[in-house]
Structure formats: structure tokens, C-alpha cells
Amino acid sequence: MNNAISLTSADLTRKLNLLKRAGLFGADTKGCVIERACSPQDLKAAYQLVHEVFVHSGYMQPVAEGIRLRVYEVSPDTATFIAKKDGKVVGVLSVVADSVELGLPSDLSFKEELDEKRAKNLKLCEMTNQVISTEYRKSSVMTELMRAAIAYIVTEGFDLTLATVSPNHSNFYKVLGFSAISTVRSYSEKLHDPVIALCMDVSLFKPSVPIGLVDPFVYHLGVTCNTFITDASDWTKRARECFLNIEMLKTLVTDHNFLKVCQPIELEYLKDRWGQELYKQVAA
Fold first, then answer.
1. Is the terminal CB of the chain with fewer CB neighbours within 10 Å at N or C?
2. Residue 123's pLDDT is what?
3. Measured between alpha carbons, how far is 130 from 146 in angstroms, rounded to an integer?
4. Is residue 2 part of a domain?
């Protein structure tokens, strides 16, 4: 069965209406505040929630430290957005920037498709770590996290955004302008984790896009009334300043002996992104 078949316009409209009725495109975030994670406490809590949800869902095996930490999560080039209720992180969505050294997380399963995009000199990024605590799933929390991510992606000048998701969740992304670029494959070499790769042309959410290329409601949500666009640049500056300090990095990596399990190419990447001096302090 080929799962890369696109939905028709009528299918997308019907799905969008269903999602609206389910509350995903409403104004109710159940009291959550959406922001970019900058502090070591928020980033640690975010990746602990990702570990909790992914383990429960069977997407990853549990680790003793109780946190999902890859080289992408400890890079200042990764933007992580969170939903918080009463100071607790209840939703997460990260955006990983493509790099020559490491590529993207989904290169593991979809490198051929991604290399075709790179061959066109397109600037790529990937949405990952998409999780919501159970009690907030029938709310607009995920949509608001997506709007924050889209504001960042547009502001940073990316051309294409990848999302690798369960086939059961793909219609939500297709409503937002993503289209399938693959059939179903496993995302993990250790677990059976069937996923499909979806790609979104970022120009769909730029102010100059011709009307009709994306659903008017979705365009309004992503562009016209996207208040996160005014925050995106300031968030990026603040997040980078907060990230590149010894307290932040030690909070993330020291307690988990993270550097000891990194591959040599990953360590070289971190030396470049953190700076040699800061890297030495963290590794000491």
C-alpha cells in the first residue's frame, strides 16, 4: 500500500472541519502559555516529557536518566517551543536546522529523499519532539506550538520543513500544508516505529504567497494573525544567549554523561557550535 498518496482538496477541508470541532484549531489552550524554552530548567523538563511520552507510546526504549537527549537537543541551532501550565511543561515541539556535519534526524530513514531537496540548494529544517501531555491533547496546544514553530521557520529563512510522523497523525500536518514525500518506513533501528515523511514549502506561509495555495483559514492562522511572528527574532536572540553558558550546558549534559556516548563527529560538531573554550569547560 502506498501511503504517499495525497488527500484531495475536499478531503483536507473535511479533515480541517473535524479538527476544528475537536478543538485543535480553537482558542482554548486550557490555560497554557506558549513560549520558546530558554532556561536549563525548561529545556530539561521539555526533553523529560518527550522521553515520558515516547516511552509510553512505544517510540523509544527508556533510558535510566529519563530524558531524550541527542546531539540535536544540546545544539544552540535547535529551537524548542513549549506549552506551560502553572510553570509545568505540558507540550513540546522542536525545530532542528539542517547541517553539513549531522544532517537531520530523519536522514536515518529518509536520506535519499532529503538529499534530493538539498541538491536544489534548499535550506531545510525538521520538526521533532512533538508531544502533548494527555490532558491537553483535545485543545489548541499543539496548533499553537505549530504556529510558534512556523513563525520561527519563516523568520529564519528556511525553504522546506520536514516532519516525520505516525501515519495516523499525518492528516493534521497535511491540513497545514505538508505533503508526503515517502511511503511508510521504520524511524528506529531498535524498535518497529512506522512513520511517514512529510514536507512543507515554507513559502506557503510568507506574506507574498498567492491566495489559494493554502487553505485561507490555515493561512490566516499561520500568517495574518500569527502573533508569534513578532516574538520570533527576540526569542532566537535570547535563546542563543541563554544556551551558550556553562550553567545551561552542564545542566543538560553533565548529569547524564552525555559527551561520553557521543560519536567523534558529534563532538566536533559541538565544539564548533559551543565554541572550543566553552566545550572544554563542560567536558572538564
1. N
2. 97
3. 9
4. no
Q: The pTM is what? A: 0.89
What are the pLDDT digits (tens) for 11-33? 666 766 666 666 667 678 999 99
Does 4 reside within a domain? Answer: no
Angle CA(130)–CA(133)–CA(139) in degrees, nearest 5? 85
Distance CA 229, CA 202 (A): 14
- Terminal Cα-to-Cα distance of the chain (whole angstroms): 52
CA–CA distance, 169 with 211 (Å, rounded to integer): 26
Q: How many CB atoms lie within 10 A of CB 63?
A: 12
Q: In this structure, is residue 3 part of a structural domain?
A: no
The CA angle 121-127-133, to the nearest 5 degrees, is 180
Could you identify the residue written with the cell 525553504?
159
E-strand ranges in the chain read 33-36, 79-85, 88-97, 124-132, 160-165, 179-180, 185-186, 194-201
| Residue 34 belongs to domain with CATH number | 3.40.630.30
